[in-house]
Amino acid sequence: MGASSSSEQDEITEEEELEQQELESFAASTGALSILQKSFSNLSDPDTNSIPIPSLQECFRLTFENTPSKMKSPLPECFSRLLTHLGPAVVDLFFIADENGGVHWIEFLRGYIRCCGRMSLSVSLNTVYKLYAGISAKAGAPSKLEFESKDDDSKTSGNFTSDDVFMLLWMCWIMSWTSEISKHSKHPMDVDLPNINHLILSAVTSCVEISSDVDVGKVNISDLNVQLPAEKLHAWALTTVPNLAHCFTQYVHDRLQRCTVTEEPHRSSISIVESSSTESHNPCLLTSGKAWAISLTLTSTVNKEILKTCVPKDSVGVFENLLYRSSVHGKVMNRFWSSVDGYHGALLVLISACSIESCEGDSNPGRWIIGVLTDQGFENKDVFYGSSGYLYALSPIFHVCSPTGRDKNFIYSHLQPAGRGVYEPHPKPVGVAFGGTPGNERIFINQDFSTMTIRYHAVDKTYRPGSLFPNQGVLTYEASILEVEVWGLGGEKVKEQQDAYRKREELFTEQRRKVDLKTFGAWEDSPERMMMDMVSDPNKVNREDR
């Protein structure tokens, strides 16, 4: 019996060792093994070789300050309670403690993989829903969500309210920005709750039918007391904000990385500020809420550059990535081109517009904003070019039109030919366009940047279907442009290359303006002298010296 019991114990130990090796191999493949080892060493109790639950909860706890003096209205009480229970909910949902209340190394690895392991996008989003439901229950406001798990797949049923979507998105925003801010600042920073009405309206209109009599541009989100089926909201998230789940995995990874040091940096505490106190002082079209919404549609490194655009370079609100703004640089094609010429990197173009009729007759017209994301800079060509891109409806409702892969008419940018005296029976249009075909562009901006033509998506095989502004029909639409912005998303190296290109162009231009008389030899024998003499007295007879 003793031998049998000993053999059984050895067999269990071997299974645990194999599982530990497998888990460590998986963690190493994600590049997080060293972080997990260091954080476990700092958090664990040497006597039990396990992490006490309170210590692990503190690791994932979000420390924040709600400073009324910095806010026009206090932080919503329900959201404050949610943030308070973030750390305990993460531990309760994803980390299993032993009978002594500690988390051992193997279970610590399992918990990390449950949060940040490789899984399908659908499962990752369901993980975020579970976290929100767990936090809501701890905060005393349980949601109406139900979860079913079968092996590697999970399903969410029930309903979200519009307030649930608000809190869920704000929670993801805070998790995303705390982890991003920690990489760029050594001091506490004010993190505002952005205006995300465009995202809420996008989710609501995708899940339920809104009466045609309702003006979505003026609707009050708080008045939308609707129930959103979880299945439909999940489908919306998969197609519109697929990178939402990354906010949670990024947060978990960042919190564990903070625990690799013995002393917690002071920057872990953030101050949450109401959006109106910051966005009201931002004159740009690209607000933090719009930039974050765009980043949620992307899985590439460009989304990090987009998030950086929300952080001013200095305290006076200078945005170093803003290449062109029509109200500042000039509302004309040449000024636009001088600002973007030589920038060979990803660009984000934002256009604020309204109908020509409303702009002429209404002092407060219904404005809307669209955006275009390109993976390269502009080139002076009379044909379409580009390899990838996205179209966005940014305000009042958010929508993304991703590339279809069927065509590559992503960008068209053609300048007025300079110094060309040859007659062209069929000249190419001068302006900037995105999608569609020549003559039937989906978006076309004329050369003086005053008007814009938008066509129905049926003419476009490059970008996916979707309305770019409220109540867009099948007819061609003429709009009056109010503002245009171009943001550079190529990083510091691309901006430095553009600056060097501009300096070279300025040098060449200055050199062409100067005339070096030495190149003409003696002035008396130069052809210029002869021409000037002929012009001054064309009848003068010049005798040839013999």
TrEMBL record:
Q: Please name the SMART domains in this protein's record.
A: TLDc
Q: Where is the composition biased (Acidic residues)?
A: 8-22
The TLDc domain covers 297-490
Q: According to the UniProt record, where is the region Disordered?
A: 1-25
* InterPro entries referenced in this protein's UniProt entry, alphabetically: TLDc_dom (IPR006571)
Q: Know the name of this protein?
A: TLDc domain-containing protein
Organism the protein comes from: Papaver atlanticum
The taxonomic lineage of its organism, from the top, reads:
Eukaryota, Viridiplantae, Streptophyta, Embryophyta, Tracheophyta
